Amino acid sequence: MLTYFQARDFRCLKSVEIKLDPCFNLIFGQNASGKTSLLEAIAYLGRGRSYRGAPTEALVRDSAKEFLVFGKIIEPKKKLTIGVKNGSNGLELSVNGDTKGGVASLVNAIPLQIIDPEIHNIVGGAPEKRRQYLDWVAFHVEQDYLGLWRHYKRTLKQRNTMLRSKAKHEEIRAWDKVLAALGEEIDTIRQQVFVVLKPVLLKTASFLLKNPVFFDYDRGWQANKSLLDIFIANENRDLQYGTTHSGPHRADIKITYENKKAKSKVSRGEQKLLACATILSAVEVVQSTLDKRLLLLLDDPAAELDTHSLKRLMEKVFELKSQLIVTSIEPEADIFPQQPSLFHVEQGKIHCPK
């Protein structure tokens, strides 16, 4: 769990430090006070990027050259110190003094998930969002998955380069076997993950929406054909457009609610609940696999939800027993089952009411 956090020159936060409760934490303040910036800074510590999609220059406080985020993690069998710096000199990170682990070392050190006002994009957005979601679970439950996925993307890039240069068929097919083998292996892992994830998704989504929800995994090519056969059969089309049309990079999770495609046929509030169901299900599966509590960040969970929907959502959140950091405008501590640690943010400064 994250026990201590410090940020310097991150957005409007000149210099802040907080000691976090192992269970419940509430950050509150008016709009534009800096509470979401604080949550974003905490998430940056575990991801090495902004969950809001902001470029580095937007994260560095005015007049500063770089920002720093730092945290301490305490687990039953180990303690970790983590630091991330970014700015004019580029990204630098350290996990217990090791600077060579890359962003993957941050993700391993602080497994976290976020529910924010844009969470509905997991349901209503492009398939890439749902692939990233599934890959986050796969990364944490399958040790070799990240390396495999990176190898696939490098090989896919090479094949696409060959397609755009109108290379000869034999030159393209020299890459097909490698790419197809990698793609099939990725799909096998994803399917295994989805088998574990699906019943949790069904249970959580049905509870939040009070009606049955259906989830189906689309691997990105025809189910009854090998990926190599697909590459060969579609080669002329791929050459025409200069890109590979089939493979795990085109996979998706299809979501159906009340016989409607959830991506475009349900309300924003329903999309948010469905998206929350995916996040909470992922956290449940990964916590079970890793046998440790994850960090769950909730940015204004009440947005777009009625009172009853919010109550059901928080009930599911508390069932996970994750470490929680929640933001709200008012200090609504009564939504927690016990008193949380309170952090009041005003103009980028933090006060801790007693």
Give a summary of the structure in a few sentences.
The protein is of the alpha/beta class and 354 residues long. The chain has helices spanning 35-47, 56-59, 103-109, 121-124, 127-141, 145-164, 169-209, 227-233, 235-241, 262-265, 268-290, 307-320; strands spanning 2-10, 13-19, 24-28, 66-75, 78-87, 92-95, 112-115, 213-218, 252-257, 260-261, 295-299, 323-328, 341-346, 349-351.
Please state the CA-atom Rg, rounded to the nearest Å.
22 Å
Regions with pLDDT < 50 over 5+ consecutive residues? none
Decide which structural class fits the backbone: alpha/beta
Roughly how much helix do the residues carry, as a percent range? 40-55%
- Compute the average pLDDT: 93
- Name given to the CATH homologous superfamily of the largest domain: P-loop containing nucleotide triphosphate hydrolases
Q: What's the arrangement of strands in the largest beta sheet? A: 7-11-12-3-13-14
List the secondary-structure elements in sequence, H or E.
EEEHHEEEHEHHHHEHHEEHHEHEEE
> What best-fitting shape do the alpha-carbon axes yield?
globular
| Overall tally of structural domains | 2
- Main sheet makeup: 6 strands, mixed
